[in-house]
Fold each of these.
Amino acid sequence: MSDHAAQLIGMALAIGIGAVGPGAGIGVIFGAAIEAMGRNPEAEGLVRTYMFLGFALTEALFIFGLVFGLLIGFGIL
Amino acid sequence: MRNRILTVLGVLVVIGAIMYFLGIRMTKDDLHISAAAEPLLCIGGTLNSSGELCASGVPFTNSVLMTILVDLILVGVAFGVGQNMKLVPRGFQNMVEFLVEFFYDFARGVDKKNVAKFFALPMTILFFFLFGNMLALVPGVGSIGVCRAEAAVAESAAAKPESAAAKPESAAAKPEEPILVQRFPAYCGKGNLFIPWLRAPAADLNVTFAFALVAVFMVEFWGFQALGIGYLGKFFINPFGKQGAIMTFVGILELFSEIMRIVAFAFRIFGNIFGGEVVLAVMTFLFAYLLPVPFYGLEVFVAFIQAVIFAVLTVVFAGLAVQAHGDDHEDHGHTTNGAVAH
């Protein structure tokens, strides 16, 4: 296997596997937030704030994978 | 109204497709992504052979230029608003006060007692990254710059005579793919490096790392200020004491996570902003007409939310650090918590 092929495989794995966990996590966060909003519509503003906070924290994990995938793919690392 | 929007979109897509097949498009050579900020000039030094980094001297990067620009705008706005403050705010002062108040209310929800002490730093971070990320999305920020000859390419071609001899042959036999784009004056050409004048501050790891260091250092500082030397009791717990050996292990984990916070802070915003720029660049390279628009909207959202996240996490960590949390402080801590909650 050439170096470039290994790089591309590494990049694809980093982004692909890195998307699995945060994908499930973001689903849980939004599902729970919608449930909470449906149960208690007055708290919608508060729930939305914490929903986006949790969303951003979870998404950051995928972003780590994305950045390192790009760094590997473009041969910087 | 809806039909009109759809018509305009359809016409744009058709025009885009025609221009794409005419050859007015980005090619793989145009896709140049640099994870590090490129130096515009090296103060008291020279560029290295590839023209991408400084061989010696202090690099003055495009990210630094953008940081100075954002700082000037922020200081200007602050002075402009602060010079003639009115008790009943109107216009621009109203807008700035709305931003500050919105975040102040949120921070008060996290820690009501100490918020006035550590509110200035998170608000500064929020303003800086909000303006920096938003200004970085203005068209022309990452796309207007200078072309710099890639010296290493020419040197290596000269060093190997057989490749130098083979190059004009292949170039003559196979004309380069995009024909029309190369006639534009803005086109850099093959073998040249494109250096944009401006680059988002958060797309440079140095900037985000500096902010992360400052934020985490101040959080620890407030912790020591509030609890004295007892702040260390959160991390170093006597294994034979009341709390047990497991809490000792937890304390060491806490200490480790305290250090990892710097890395997480720095990489979170760097990754989001830099990754967003890469996504926009790749989408432009795939199909430059109309395809990047939804991603552009996503980037506006990310630019806002990441600035807020950095500031909110600073507030949350500071609020956690100043709370007493030891075994001899336990009852005391609960009463203060209860007082905060009601």
Amino acid sequence: MLGIGLGLRRELAPLTFAAADRIDWLEIVPENYMDIGGSARERLDEALAGFPIVTHGVNLSVGSTDDLSDDYLKSLKELLDRIDAPWWTDHLCFTSVNGAYMHDLLPLPFSKEAVEHVAGRARICQERIGRPFLLENISYYTEIPGSEMEEAQFLSEVLEKADCGLLLDVNNVYVNSINLNFDPYKYLDSIPLERVVQIHLAGHTYVGETIIDTHGAPVIEPVFELLSHVLKRTDVKAVMLERDQNYPDFDEILAELDEIRAITRNYQPEGTVSTLPGDRARATA
Amino acid sequence: MTEAATLKEIEESLYRLWTTADARRTYLSGQVPEGVHQEVADKIDPEGVSLYSSLIRLGQKDLMLSIYPGCARVIGRGFEDLIYQYMETFPAEHFNFNRAASRFSVFLKEHCQRLEAKFPFLPELADYEWIELEVLEHPADQRCAARKIVLSGPDDFSEQAPRVNPTLILRRYQYPIDKIVDWLRDDVRLPRRIKKAEVCLAVYRSARTSSARFLALSPVAARLIETATASPTAFAELVTIAVNENPDTDPQNTVLEFLELIEKLEELELLSGSIAL
């Protein structure tokens, strides 16, 4: 049980470390630390000294038809072993084609072929890394040709066939529901919530009529309502706030974490999600 | 009826549309670009194509501006278009996003002759800006304590070798890149014409501050550092090289200069202590 966490960002690192009494755990982007020394390593060491850490990768490219990258998995495993992460996460998407990385999280067609392909690769990755793997539902902005089912069914089938956990990003559910016009509650009620291990919360930005998942604004009330909806229905191990740009005063971020903590406390059985800094020892034991 | 695209064909088609300006233009003009499956061309939303290509480009622009601020300043308004040409010519091949920028210098040299004619130092400036990032990210752990260099007797000269900063990269440039970098950082207008002036730069990461440093080396200092980097070399052997490189100078003076140089290089963290041979 990790509790309420925050994404570790270089710009906010000193403030984050100084707020250890209000942040239970940290999430890092592993690619920023894999085979990298200098200030990144120092930052990671400082984080490790004060917090449990989970990784949230961006380039496993689990949906790609390229071969899995041995270099990537080896380097990721070394990092995960070093930080002794309780689980690791990446996105249900593809980021590379024929060896070329696009460095963006790109949606897959919701097809039977993609279900089988991703599930098989996710199983291999989980086995090779040797730690529980969670896949995250991504935000996407266009329907991909070749789709044969709704996103919720696609996600559910991948999770079941891969037998892995879900990192449920409720902001992504909200963003997709507005952009692609579906009922987010119906979506949540149709996915295997018992597989949710971790939840992501973030803010977004309107660009014209499209909402972009920028992680550059405060979490809005409808997203908190989706969080409550999930927390009422399943036990989770961790809830986390993503803030990647347009940084406000750090106190505002801490206040947002407090709000997440308060909401979580309303629905989760005591001890499931750490709600007090003192719980950290128990959480990491 | 169009044959259904496979997952691989869908991914390849989307890649073409999202990352290749020509393919995008062809598609938006109502035709099916080469490498794009008919089903994808028929069913993908043009707005989605534009949006994803914009998002990918935004990431590329942020990356290149953060790594090549000097080149961006020299090139000016044309920099953004150049980035996208570069990314199409040299697609990212590594999971570390920063590495997508690694071949910009090669791109400038091989694909931008007109720009190079105007700013002949540009490929070297790009190379410098890239290796600055390389030393910053170098995986070496610099926290292990090394014994400070003490050369108090003949045995010290023959039994010890300087430990070169493990992040060090040496570069010989035809243009005074050290001066150009300083001018750009100090917001000084560059001279209209920058003349060739060969320089050997040592670029490395400070263990104390984790920041990148560069140092212009004299030919003798460069030779000594190259030798010591290639394999652990006793101070005595390095002194011999210094003396041989300065045949017109009194050897005693060369030895004194050598000791001063070692002290200076250690102070500047280019050398980090000594190792026993």
